[in-house]
Amino acid sequence: MVRFREASIDRVAALTGRSRSEIQAFRRELTASSLPDVLINRGAGLPSTQEFPQAGLLYLLIRSQRPERVIETGVRPGYTTAWILAALEANGGGSLHSLGPGPTAHRIQSVRDVTVGQFVPPALRGRWTLVLGNTMDNLRELLTAQRPVDLFLYDNGPDADRARFELRSAWAALSPQGILLAHHVDANPAWSDFCRAQGVAEQILDPGPPRLGAVGMRRAPGP
Q: At 99, is the secondary structure helix, strand, or coil?
């Protein structure tokens, strides 16, 4: 069984309102998943597979929340994308817009060389829209749509100004049960600044590495 920090499971419960027993059922489901093998066969290397516990945690979060509209930024090979889509497929509903590609500077060679979305299996692409081009412009267009966003994942590199723009914009567009996630929150001060602006301490879903932040609209986050 995938090992998760108990504090992370408790945080998923607090963010989604699901009981630990319900989340544990999703965890057992995850144990039987063939997705890790599928991703390896599609080219996912050690850097990606080392993040399996955190990708699995994202799967549990989506299974528990059952979002209808998900947006992620910074997609490149699509490792996280595949986990999101697998959870949506298991839910039997929801869609994902992925904005990318992210910058390739400072990435390891194996990541620079992959095709955008390479890791996403064809069987999971029915709920997926890949949006390429200027992330800020595309995000503005997506967030001005009438439908609110249920889950937003920022994974768009270390630029602090871009992170601040995306976090503020997404927060304003979240549904009443929406959740805002940020990957690699130790890359710049944008996440801690955002949490401070909400009047709370820095919110961490999983300490990683890499650190994954999460704030939900459903209930006020704790200290």
A: strand
Hey, is 176 helix, strand or coil? strand
- For 52-74, give one letter per residue: b (16+ CB within 10 A) or e: bebbbbbbbbbbbbbbbbbbbbb
Q: What is the pLDDT of residues 23-69, one digit of tens each?
A: 999 999 988 889 888 988 888 876 666 777 889 999 999 999 999 99
Q: How far apart are CA 151 and CA 158, in angstroms?
A: 21
DSSP 126-146: GGEEEEES-HHHHHHHHHTSS
Q: What is the CATH number of domain 6-216?
A: 3.40.50.150
Residue 45 structure tokens: 């290397």
- d(CA 3, CA 171) in angstroms, rounded, equals 30
Q: How many CB atoms lie within 10 A of CB 29?
A: 14
> Which amino acid makes up residue 8?
S
Instruction: Record the pTM.
Output: 0.89
Angle between helices 160-173 and 135-143 (to 10 degrees): 10
Q: What are phi and psi of 5, to 5 degrees?
A: -70, 135
